[in-house]
């Protein structure tokens, strides 16, 4: 398969206010105002509504929406439908008797509301001089080595658009109706398996891990200007990565593992020229943690376990003295303390630590004073919180599985949705430019087929444009239950083997990800297992 790295050069964004029937829509503040109050919209809802406002009373196909709203990214029909449904909900619009969004089967959608642009607006220019080109790399299909339950992964940049805000006189207002607006820049566009991205401090290079179909993990460093790349090589059977850049961008520290070894190396990097590796630490066999420089180039922080299946703990290593120190950290449960993030300016760690129920608490550790503070807990498993660029908030996935990035204050309050993606987000990272975020995202599309083992015939049970999985036969063999994301979140569906009819059984609103589904012995009930709960239906 081919992977395309694609970075946006320049997009002009107009901030507008619109009168939509009795609503006032402000795309800058992402709000919809009415006499009943204000509704906060998600970023993708805003982009879609802006496009509708620019094209009222036009039938707009899903392909056209994908091209101009989703920037041509690979998205399912369900991703478009999900945002349409959310817009209808905020407008209190009935799809059968619409006053705002009308559906034309097999053609698209028409925004039928009365729309008038209001006079005041702002124009701003986002990122300038970001490298615009594409390069194709042949990448083999990934395995599940890092619990990435996706058929493809991509690395993207979420741009915060915080540059060059200017006021313009009303007389100069011109709008390009087909301007492509997006808050993200896709770095890999096709099915692929690039994970653990890290941008060098000077913003010229990206390191990432590439996983091949023969279970080989490669560490790649690529120039964002020339698109040249180098592989950080060790022995043929070694897996290499992840990597972390030194504060000055002149070195990387990275992990090398094999069946019987676990080692960390540093390596000087001049552009794409690699010097000889230096072994700095030998870890326990079966430990697959990560190591990161602190703001002191001579000190690194890393996670390590005592062997396969044991929990991770956090340590500090002085690269000059080679003295290893166990850090003050939350109590170790389950997989332990493997996820941490260094504050952008201070000598502090943000630690994401699960408790015995697999619910995650977020802790701040001062590396100088060794003081550990619990910031807040969530009654859910939310992987990998990171500091915001200012270091006064947190950024993490909004639930699991998630299509959004959320920002919280350090007490877990003042939640803001800062980005919505059309793909499932695996985890976020900060960009080295001090403004933007990278994220790893992916999608899987599994179908369910019923196969007659005697004659070999098969028929499709479920083939939505998203994932259908975990099929379970009822005891009498007449019904198949399965999990599907066809309506935007994971729900239990039933398939009648005789009539071939499908029925959505549940309306879960907890956005859980399910790992198993079983019928009761009498066939009158189902149980579903998510990451830390069992549901009886």
- Overall geometric form: globular
Q: How would you write the strand order of the largest sheet?
A: 15-13-37-36-35-34-33
Largest sheet data: 7 strands, antiparallel
Named at the architecture level, the CATH assignment of the largest domain is 6 Propeller
Counting DSSP E segments of at least 2 residues, the number of strands comes to 46
What's the name of the CATH homologous superfamily of the largest domain?
Answer: TolB, C-terminal domain
Domain unit count: 3
Q: What proportion of the residues form beta strands (DSSP E)?
A: 35-45%
Distance between the termini: 41 Å
Helix content: under 10%
Calculate the mean pLDDT score and round it: 81
The level-1 CATH class of the largest domain: Mainly Beta
The count of helical stretches stands at 3
Secondary structure category: mainly beta
Unreliable stretches (pLDDT < 50, length at least 5) are 1-14, 120-152, 159-182
- Rg for CA atoms: 25 Å
Q: The CATH topology of the largest domain, please?
A: Neuraminidase
What are the salient characteristics of this protein?
single chain; 537 residues; 7-stranded antiparallel β-sheet; 46 strands; Neuraminidase
Architecture overview:
It is a single chain. By secondary structure, the chain is mainly β. The chain has 3 domains: 17-120, Arc Repressor Mutant, subunit A (Orthogonal Bundle); 136-443, Neuraminidase (6 Propeller), CATH 2.120.10; 448-536, no CATH class. The chain is 6% helix and 42% strand. The chain has 3 helices and 46 strands. The strands form 12 sheets. The chain has a 7-stranded antiparallel β-sheet, with no helix packed on it. A hairpin with an 8-residue loop joins strand 26 and strand 27 (313-318). Residues 1-14, 120-152 and 159-182 have low confidence and may be disordered.
């Amino acid at each position: 398969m081919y992977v395309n790295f694609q970075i946006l050069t320049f997009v002009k964004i107009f901030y507008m206010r619109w009168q939509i029937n009795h609503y006032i829509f402000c795309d800058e503040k992402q709000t919809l105002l009415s006499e009943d109050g204000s509704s906060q919209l998600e970023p993708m809802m805003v982009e879609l509504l802006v496009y509708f406002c620019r094209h009222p009373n036009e039938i707009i196909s899903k392909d056209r929406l994908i091209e101009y709203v989703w920037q041509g990214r690979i998205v399912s029909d369900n991703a478009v439908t999900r945002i349409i449904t959310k817009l209808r909900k905020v407008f209190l619009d009935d799809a059968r008797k619409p006053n705002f969004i009308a559906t034309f089967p097999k053609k698209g959608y028409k925004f039928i509301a009365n729309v008038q642009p209001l006079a005041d607006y702002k124009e701003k220019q986002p990122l300038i001089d970001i490298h615009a080109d594409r390069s194709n790399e042949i990448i083999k299909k990934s395995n599940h080595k890092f619990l990435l339950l996706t058929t493809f992964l991509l690395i993207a940049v979420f741009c915060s658009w915080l540059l060059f805000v200017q006021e313009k006189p009303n007389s100069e207002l011109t709008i390009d109706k087909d301007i492509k607006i997006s808050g993200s820049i896709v770095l890999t566009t096709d099915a692929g398996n690039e994970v653990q991205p890290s941008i060098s401090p000077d913003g010229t290079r990206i390191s990432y891990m590439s996983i091949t179909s023969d279970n080989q993990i490669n560490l790649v460093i690529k120039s964002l200007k020339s698109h040249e790349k180098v592989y950080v090589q060790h022995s043929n059977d070694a897996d290499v990565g992840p990597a972390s850049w030194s504060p000055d961008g002149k070195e990387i520290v990275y992990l090398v593992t094999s069946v019987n070894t676990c080692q960390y190396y540093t390596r000087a990097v001049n552009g794409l020229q690699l010097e000889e590796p230096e072994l700095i630490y030998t870890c326990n066999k079966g430990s697959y943690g990560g190591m990161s420089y602190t703001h002191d180039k001579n000190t690194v922080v890393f996670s390590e376990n005592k062997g396969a299946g044991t929990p991770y703990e956090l340590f500090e290593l002085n690269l000059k003295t080679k003295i290893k120190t166990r850090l003050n950290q939350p109590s170790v449960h389950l997989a332990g303390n493997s996820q941490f993030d260094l504050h952008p300016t201070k000598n502090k760690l943000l630690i994401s630590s699960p408790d015995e129920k697999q619910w995650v608490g977020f802790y701040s550790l001062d590396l100088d004073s060794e003081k550990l503070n619990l910031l807040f807990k969530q009654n859910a498993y939310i992987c990998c919180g990171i500091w915001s660029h200012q270091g006064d908030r947190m950024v993490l996935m909004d639930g699991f599985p998630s299509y959004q990035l959320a920002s919280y204050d350090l007490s877990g309050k003042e939640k803001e949705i800062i980005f919505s993606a059309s793909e499932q987000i695996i985890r976020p990272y900060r960009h080295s430019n001090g403004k933007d975020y990278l994220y790893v995202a992916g999608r899987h599309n599994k179908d369910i087929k019923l196969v007659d083992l005697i004659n070999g015939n098969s028929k499709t049970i479920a083939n939505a444009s998203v994932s259908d999985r975990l099929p379970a036969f009822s005891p009498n063999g007449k019904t198949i239950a399965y999990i599907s994301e066809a309506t935007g979140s994971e729900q239990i569906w039933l398939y009648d083997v005789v009539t071939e009819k499908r029925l959505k059984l549940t309306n879960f609103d907890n956005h859980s990800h399910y790992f198993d589904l079983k019928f009761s012995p009498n066939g009158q009930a189902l149980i579903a297992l998510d990451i830390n709960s069992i549901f009886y239906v």
